[in-house]
Design goal:
Blueprint (H helix, E strand, L loop, with lengths): L4 E3 L1 H14 L19 H13 L12 E4 L2 E4 L1 H14 L6 H4 L4 H7 L1 E2 L5 E2 L3 H19 L3 H7 L15 H5 L11 H12 L17 H10 L2 E3 L1 H9 L5 H22 L3 H14 L7 H4 L6 H6 L15 H4 L17
Antiparallel strand pairs: 1-6, 2-3, 4-5
Helix pairs in contact: 1-12, 2-9, 5-6, 10-13
Length: 342
Amino acid sequence: MGFSANISSDKTRKLGLHFRRLQPKAEDFLDTRFFPALEEDPEDVTRFFFFITGIDHRTSPTGQSFEGFIEEEYFQGADLLWHLAFRKYRENLGFFKAHRMARITVKDVKQWLTVKQPVQVTIRNPKQRAELLRDCGQKLAKFYNGSVLTLLDQAGNRLSVSSSCNHVGLLDHLARFKAYEDPARKKSFLLLKFLLRRRLWTLDDPENLRIPVDNHLIRIALRTGIVKVSPSFEAVLRDGRVITIADDIALREVISDAFVEVVRYAKLPVLELDDFLWHFGRLCCKADSPICYEGCTTQCFVATDLLPFSCDLQCPLRESCTAYSEVRYRELKEPKLDTLYY
């Protein structure tokens, strides 16, 4: 396959300076359709984030899209997952206790994460998600007395261990759980984003923060040109051929390092930049119809909630994106593989 990937420092600088001018807004994760309120018990809230982040990966089953209406409001993908999760949280708080998750069944997951309008669709691979939730529940009970706050306390406000402290960092604690074993740490950094933004944890080593690299961020990194891959690997991505997990992890780690350079120039917190990038990839820089190719006809969440000024129905990154001016880069997509990492 000839995998290789390298950071383009010229492009990371250009994109970072563009973001410094753009100054996208951050989310507060207080939307009552998806998340518990601020005044709720911190243990209940951290457990909710811990379990749902652990199963927040590819949601659509083969041949269907995980989308539909709940009480006349339409949700899709991750939004539908988090909405159904929060509905369950409100209906039955005990559902998210460690001992309950330790014995969750495939039938439970199917009943919980199914939408019936306009057609019935169940989240992708409910068996795998039940296994991940059971593993999280069993190990949370075994190692942390069923408490995510205990897990966080044992991490000692650090992501990584250092010579000056005796604590195992949060990343190593999370890696005990199958849902969080990804070497590129996508779900771990996503969980951290929720915890920090909701002020459920504080961090003493912010220099170890990284962006949660998923399919959307891979696509953006390749199209903007901040990461260049070898011609043979570019052909694999362009053709949609399946790659190995090892190559996927290696690619995402290079992309993670590239975004470290971007945020240094942007002078923005890395996890706040992720707010914009994730929504931008999902709504604007889509796999098959990026707006630089298809055009834009709507005011989406990026335009209404994350940008400080109007995008005029054009790509807000057009001045610093290679794909905007070089058509062949628009064809680059995330790797094709079946993974629970993102």
